[in-house]
Design goal:
19 strands; 10% helix; 255 residues; mainly beta; 3 helices; two-stranded antiparallel sheet; Beta-galactosidase, Chain A, domain 5; 15-stranded antiparallel sheet
Length: 255
């Protein structure tokens, strides 16, 4: 979100957002690294992130330098739908890459679903956020406030062992957060932050990245807690999202 004077916060203009999608789902990402709108796994799914419409109660997923929500520089990678947001400070620089892997990738694990009594295969759709330090060092903060069913139902959070991720459940939506690839020396831990009158807790992690270090986070939504756990342990932890980024968008050999 963008700021006006010290006591008044205003909404970002819609044309300030970058768009990431795969023709089945779309998320909107502000220049400050905050995803303020997301309907997953499909366009007509209830929003799990909706700060675009409700700054106070709507959900968001922000990854940004800890020293403040300043605008980064956004660009699309090599004319693809993968969005990169760069944050530069005197002490260092980081690049945040957001994408939804394309469903045409044949290497994807697939699940069988039944539509009109016909079994069809559909990939598990997920949002990927990669943060990498390209120069010096930087302290980074991740905040995830998921608000299932357009923020109309309360949410319950369960953290996974060793901060490997979390489950956020509300109604028939179960949000899965997975820490899938960690290439950093500093520890990474998630805490739950929640006001007494707030329906939706915020997951927060603060960590330091040095040049060449990175981590990858995956976010997905399932309609039952059982399928959410299966997705977490049996698929998302096993996938190589760096490879999927390359093959989804044909980035092999690009500079």
């Amino acid at each position: 979100m963008e700021w006006g004077n010290e006591s008044h916060q205003i909404y970002s203009l819609i044309n300030a957002y970058g768009v990431v999608g795969d023709s089945h789902a779309t998320v909107l990402i502000a220049p400050d690294g905050s995803i303020d709108w997301a309907c997953l796994p499909d366009f007509d799914s209830p929003a799990i992130l909706s700060r675009l419409l409700d700054e106070r109660h709507g959900g968001y997923f922000q990854i940004a330098p800890t020293d403040g929500p300043q605008r980064g520089l956004q660009r699309y990678l090599h004319r693809t739908s993968a969005l990169q947001t760069s944050f530069v400070r005197a002490a260092g620089a980081v690049e945040l890459t957001d994408f939804i892997p394309m469903g045409t990738l044949q290497a994807w694990p697939r699940k069988v679903i039944t539509i009109n009594r016909v079994n069809v295969c559909r990939p598990h759709r997920c949002l990927i956020r990669m943060i990498e330090c390209t120069y010096g060092s930087m302290s980074v903060t991740m905040d995830l406030k998921a608000t299932p069913h357009n923020a109309t139902v309360p949410a319950e959070v369960v953290l996974c062992p060793d901060s490997m991720g979390a489950f956020i459940s509300g109604g028939l939506q179960h949000v899965v957060l997975v820490l899938s690839d960690v290439r950093m020396r500093a520890p990474f831990s998630i805490e739950i932050v929640q006001d007494a009158e707030e329906w939706h807790p915020t997951l927060r992690a603060r960590f330091a990245l040095c040049e060449g270090e990175s981590l990858t986070l995956a976010l997905a939504v399932e309609d039952s807690i059982q399928s959410a756990h299966q997705l977490f342990w049996d698929e998302l932890l096993q996938r190589d999202f760096n490879t999927e980024l390359i093959h989804s968008f044909g980035l092999a050999g690009t500079a």
